[in-house]
Amino acid sequence: MAMQYRSPRLGVVAVVLALAATPTVHAQPSDAVPIDPDGEGHPSRADAPEEVPDLESVDTDGDGIPDLVEMATGTDILDVDTDGDGVPDGEEDANRDGVVDPGERDPRVPGLHHLAALLPEPMVFDLVRPLGARAGEVEVNTLIVTDFLNDRPVVYWAPEVEWAIVDGFAVELELPMVDAELDALKLALQWTAPSPETNFAHGVQVIGEVGLNGWEPELTALYLLGGRVDRVALSGMVGARAHGAADRLDAWHVLVNSMVAVDLHEAVTVALETNVAVGLDETVRLALVPQIHWQVVERFRIQLGAGAVYEAGDWRPQAITRLILE
Prior knowledge:
Blueprint: H1 8-21, H2 67-73, H3 89-92, E1 138-149, E2 152-166, E3 169-174, E4 177-178, E5 181-182, E6 184-193, E7 200-211, E8 217-229, E9 232-243, E10 252-265, E11 268-279, E12 284-297, E13 300-311, E14 314-325
Antiparallel strand pairs: 1-2, 1-14, 2-3, 2-4, 3-6, 4-5, 6-7, 7-8, 8-9, 9-10, 10-11, 11-12, 12-13, 13-14
């Protein structure tokens, strides 16, 4: 019987044809972006990467100044009021660019007070907290006046506590002393009236005092006002005072106090204060007090003044110091 011969080449060809006919399955990588069912090839929103925040607009403490600007200029990105003077950084740096432009304050340096940029407090007739005081503000200060009467110095000094009960309304308790003796008890109330202008403030102040020598009462009522143009602040008080028996002419006085102040630096202000008291009995008392206000540290400031007093037809020197702790 004859044998059939099968060429090995035919076997190889048959295997190749069989593999070519087998369907090929491609594995999809695990990180492949799924295709949107609309067939347009858009990635699914659920799997889209999260948006990266704009670092130039991040403001951690919410003071209005971006963190990148604060880090570059030295203010605190975690504190809305870096210098602790009561004014937010974004209010002191009005355009929030990190540069102290004309009319702005340095948020790294404590100012005299949160409203000191508007009206510094006078010395002879101080305020019960600045106009516009905020609820909860407390101040302890001591006024020391060295007057020269009959060629000998007499020291009048008065420790006092001031407290803003609610926004715009404050009370004061004062203990006037003469040398080492308590001379009177004084209570003052002050209200800040609404004002449509940011560079103007006004209000009223009422002061009641009882002298311990004779217990004669004294009542003073004043209208307060003031405003600012750039570095210059102008303020004034006008009112009346009644001391003792109301039927006496010498018991009544008209009071006028004015002050012009100029900021040399955010923590240093110079001023000239004029105080006039005119009695219905035609007596006149005039005080002229040049002064300097210095913010020593964050919560402590000093006012120093030296001037002259005209009374009973004569001039005499006077020195005044006020120490203020807030």
